[in-house]
């Protein structure tokens, strides 16, 4: 479901408020929390209601006379489910930013010496159950590091780099990893560096299928950065 940043913020505040007061709330209460006008908060809650994320009901006002009622809102089960998923996406994005920064920083530090410590660190982290994007990125980085540390020569043209210039697709990223795995498997020193391949191959393919288009693009761009840092050029 597509929500603007503002709608996500209001939905989060609405859920927090509902949990806090344990009853349906008036739109003015949300307005105060977000610093909005009451009319703006009302319109946004009505829009969320159309999306099935909140429900409205008329309840009797406290200390009010007979027949006096007030419009109140409460989040739906659908909103709770969406909120938890959005929170998970935020955690996953934070994890990705940390992993990306750590790998690229380590690659820059190792340019003058070697990358054995980074490769060892990646191989210890890969088996952990984390997001598909992080898993794919760490596997690709470990494969490229194995080839780089084994001083693998590509000749005049680098087929891995050529794959990254093709239009973005799961097939292309799958072929890139498959080619790298094949090169690692064919080289004795690479096999010693990378270790057991079989347990990573199937999971990589599964994780790649789980990536939405925007994260697939993120993986491709990250792979380009890794290859640039490793100075993989035809020789």
* Order of adjacent strands in the largest pleated sheet: 1-2
**Helix coverage percent:** 55-70%
Query: Rounded to an integer, what's the Rg over CA atoms?
Result: 25 Å
Quaternary status: single chain
Arithmetic mean pLDDT: 80
Structural class based on helices, strands and sheet pairing: mainly alpha
Order of helices and strands: HHHEEHHHHHHHH
Could you please describe the fold and organization of this structure?
The protein is mainly α and 235 residues long. The protein has two domains: 5-75, Orthogonal Bundle (Arc Repressor Mutant, subunit A); 92-229, no CATH class. It is 67% helix and 6% strand. It contains eleven helices and two strands; from the N terminus they run αααββαααααααα. The chain has a two-stranded antiparallel sheet with strand order 1-2. A hairpin with an 8-residue loop joins strand 1 and strand 2 (69-75). Helix 6 packs parallel to helix 8 (170-186) and helix 6 (132-149) packs antiparallel against helix 9. The longest helix has 33 residues, at 77-109. The protein is elongated and about 80 Å long. The two termini are 49 Å apart. The mean pLDDT is 80.
